[in-house]
Design a protein that fits this description.
- It is a single chain.
- The protein has eight helices and eight strands; from the N terminus they run βαβαααβαβαβββαβα.
- By secondary structure, the protein is an alpha/beta fold.
- It has a domain at 2-26 and 79-115 and 177-213: P-loop containing nucleotide triphosphate hydrolases (Rossmann fold, 3-Layer(aba) Sandwich).
- Helix 2 (31-41) packs across helix 3 (44-54), helix 2 (31-41) crosses helix 4 (61-72) and helix 6 (117-125) packs across helix 7 (165-188).
Length: 214
């Protein structure tokens, strides 16, 4: 089974990805991770990516696609794989389709976890971290016993800058702008599997498994 997993920041995509890897017995392919691995291993494409990264530039689609092609040819991808963080645009989706077609493969499902923006803002802006030990809390879903104080070490809790509402709304706007055309693309191809991302993590996972088995 070959999957693409889509979802905005705060949708719980990471948790669901881990469960899917265990359930389906396929590797999760994160664009960032395979780029860093290719750079570490010093592959020709990795060296090319490093040149762009060192210059503070975006790695071109052609290089990213080449690295993904190398990765999906690995033995552990024979039963399938799950792409996380790629594609982000329609041209990338087209390139991925072409690469897989050359290998006689295709994407089976595109799972899109959907959560209302206001809920995402609540989830993300409520996160707090301990300055002392780094423990994580949530003011609504997992609050400390004493407001602003870490249960574990007594350190002060703080909100990261990237969890502030203005930043969160900007990130969600970028995601919507990038992903809306991609969702339309995969819906037209008959591959989109929209999943309601509200409720318990187990409930959401059950919905995902339901559409994959359907």
């Amino acid at each position: 089974m070959r999957l693409i997993l889509l979802g905005p920041p705060g949708a719980g995509k990471g948790t669901q990805a881990t469960r899917l890897v265990d359930k389906c017995g396929i590797p999760q392919i994160s664009t960032g991770e395979i780029l860093r691995a290719a750079v570490r291993e010093g592959t020709p494409l990795g060296k090319s990516a490093k040149d762009f990264m060192d210059a503070g530039k975006l790695v071109p689609d052609s290089v990213v696609i080449g690295i993904i092609e190398e990765r999906v040819k690995a033995a552990d991808c024979a039963p399938g794989f799950m792409l996380d963080g790629f594609p982000r645009t329609v041209p990338q989706a087209d390139a991925l389709k072409d690469v897989l077609a050359k290998m006689g493969l295709k994407i089976d499902h595109v799972v899109s976890i959907e959560v209302p923006n206001e809920e995402l803002v609540i989830r993300l802006t409520g996160r707090r971290m301990c300055k002392g030990c780094g423990a994580g809390y949530h003011v609504k879903f997992d609050p400390p016993k004493s407001a602003g104080v870490c249960d574990k070490c007594g350190g002060a809790l703080f909100q990261r800058d990237d969890d502030k509402e203005e930043t969160i709304r900007a990130r969600l706007k970028v995601y919507e702008d990038q992903t809306a055309p991609l969702i339309a693309y995969y819906r037209q191809a008959g591959l989109l599997r929209p999943i309601e991302g509200m409720g318990g993590m187990g409930d959401i996972f059950g919905r995902i498994v339901g559409v994959l088995n359907g």
